[in-house]
Specification:
six-stranded mixed beta sheet, four-stranded antiparallel beta sheet
Length: about 230
């Protein structure tokens, strides 16, 4: 199993402000699959993603990614883990405003030991003609494509997506999801997608539902629908 999480707990605050967000999460995800993580606001889904990404400490439990235990790693080792294994895509694109599309992607390209071909990636994501534009000159969908390219240039084994279509209209959302689908097919990238959108679960291999800090459902989707055919996005 590529991702193994066992008895994971995460809390914030203390005393009267103590809040336990993750209450003993158990989860396994196979290599190369697209997995959606769903749940209401406050259920712990984004916190779980951040813990897997090494962006937040955990209180107890285990997270193993490709055989590597990441809980308890030093900041330097966590940085090495993220650089070697992960790509991040967020709802708000976090692009550097004074860098062009190409330069935004190159920032992450320089961190990789074996990056993907930049020109090929620009072509796959439909950004070739926009590569010399600045973020302010792009539509929301184009900015998200740039953010995806920046995450993918490192050729990550694991792509973590936190509400990747949350700021986009339905047509653009469908295009972005189709791109993620193509990336998964082309590069075999394992993907975890946190989303409020109930339709996205229909296009992925595995669906995980979190409620009150625990995994309540975890099942394989036997009737996948292509992203281009998703409704109610």
């Amino acid at each position: 199993m590529y991702l193994e999480i066992s008895k994971l707990k995460k809390s914030y605050g203390e005393g009267g402000s103590f809040t336990e967000v993750l209450k003993g999460v158990d989860l396994s995800v196979e290599k190369g699959v697209m997995c959606v993580i769903q749940g209401t606001s406050g259920s712990g889904k984004s916190t779980l993603l951040n813990c897997i990404g090494g962006l937040e400490d955990t209180n107890s439990g285990s997270i193993s990614v490709d055989g590597m235990e990441i809980c308890g790693l030093s900041p330097d080792k966590l940085s090495d883990y993220r650089r070697a294994n992960l790509g991040f895509i967020f709802q708000f694109y976090n692009l550097v405003p004074n860098l062009t599309v190409r330069e935004n992607i190159q920032v992450c390209e320089y961190l990789a030991d074996a990056p993907l071909d930049l020109n090929e990636l620009l072509e796959v994501l439909g950004l070739t003609e926009h590569q010399n534009k600045f973020p302010s000159q792009l539509s929301g969908g184009q900015q998200q494509r740039c953010a995806i390219a920046r995450a993918l240039i490192k050729n990550p084994k694991l792509l973590l997506c936190d509400e990747p279509t949350g700021a986009l209209d339905s047509s653009t959302s469908r295009d972005i999801l189709a791109l993620l689908e193509e990336v998964n097919r082309k590069y075999g990238t394992t993907m975890l997608i946190v989303t409020h959108n109930n339709s996205i679960k229909n296009m992925v291999d595995r669906v995980v539902y979190i409620k009150d800090g625990l995994v309540r459902k975890n099942y394989r989707n036997e009737k996948k629908v292509p992203a281009a055919e998703l409704e109610d996005l």
